[in-house]
Amino acid sequence: MKIINVDASKKYDVIIGERILSSLGKKCLSLFGKSKAVIVTDSNVKEHWLAETKKSLNDSGIKTAEFVFAAGEDSKNPETLFELLEFAAENKITRSDFLVALGGGVTGDMTGLAASLYLRGIPFVQVPTTLLAAVDSSVGGKTAVNLKSGKNLMGAFCQPSLVLCDINTLSTLPETEFANGMAEVIKYGVIFDKELFDKVKSGDVKSDLENIIARCVELKRDVVMKDEFDTGERQLLNFGHTMAHSIEKCSNFEIPHGSAVAIGMVIAAKASFALGWSKEDCTAAIVEANKNSNLPTECVFSPENLADAALSDKKRTGGTINFVVPETLGKCVLKKIPVDELYKIAEYK
């Protein structure tokens, strides 16, 4: 088991290990006392992990209520968010109580945003059950839901009080979902750590998941502690995401986030080298890593559609956008470019 300490606007632990979900209740009891929790989960995760989560909390004297929504990105919207807030109110949740996000990125993002809004802020706990959530979205305090105009346009920064990652929960993931998480693992390697990239490039990672997840969390922890509110260095974590969000939007969110990031990284690497921004061409290595992790490498949408969708991205600042350039494997830099450059970048899809 590994414990990683995050010291941001709120201090909390990220606990990573095998078969540790049963310890959730004791951890929450030490943080919140004998309070009440709303367990937020989706219709898929409910079948696998809700009962054990509820039992752990109840056995520690924490009363629970369960809010279950339809699995999928379609549910990550203001309507589901407000249903969750009404559910919390109906169950008389107070500031002494807390929410538990049991699931993947959609669950974590929406639960965190609800926690930031309800009664002007109550605590929440992240219990990631997907690889993508474990290595990325459960840590760092970004919370959001989607609007019709784009992904994650309604959100807030809200750090969790605890992240508990039971690696055993990943065993129930479909292979396609595990692959989506690998896109974020590959991303961390390209941005910060060539040794990590080389380790995961083959796609053979399941024998060392605890260490790989922990390394990704450490990398994210370090950048979040330097730039919690995403005004500088934290934007490096958006490598591949500019076009990824466009791909998701163009597909009506039928292409999952991880697959979109995988394609977005290829586009970013190809464009960066062709435009003279990179010191080496990272494209072939990223393509190889994607393929070995059963991730896509090609985009079916037109450059015009990709660029148009990117113009509504929340990371745009006026007439410019910070684009993440892979200078070399293991080192990315931010390059401020005019938004019109997005059309040029999209040509390398």
| CATH C-level category of the largest domain | Mainly Alpha
Q: Would you report the number of β strands?
A: 12
Number of helices: 13
Q: Which percent range fits the helix content?
A: 40-55%
SSE order, as H and E?
A: EEHEHEHEHEHEEEHHHHHHHEEEH
Find the CATH superfamily of the largest domain: Dehydroquinate synthase-like - alpha domain
Termini separation: 41 Å
Q: Which structural category fits the helices and strands?
A: alpha/beta
Largest sheet: 7 strands, mixed
Strand fraction equals: 15-25%
Instruction: Assign the CATH topology of the largest domain.
Output: Dehydroquinate synthase-like, alpha domain
Describe this structure in words.
It is a single chain. The termini are far apart. The chain is about 45% helix and about 20% strand. Helix 3 packs across helix 4 (about 105-115), helix 9 crosses helix 10 (about 255-275) and helix 9 packs across helix 12 (about 305-310). Helix 2 links the parallel strand 3 and strand 4 (about 65-70). The chain has 2 domains: about 1-170, Rossmann fold; about 175-345, Dehydroquinate synthase-like - alpha domain (Dehydroquinate synthase-like, alpha domain, Up-down Bundle). The strands form 3 sheets. Strands 1-2-9-6-5-3-4 form a 7-stranded mixed beta sheet, sandwiched between helices. A 3-stranded antiparallel beta sheet has the order 10-11-12. The protein has 13 helices and 12 strands. The protein is globular and about 60 Å long.
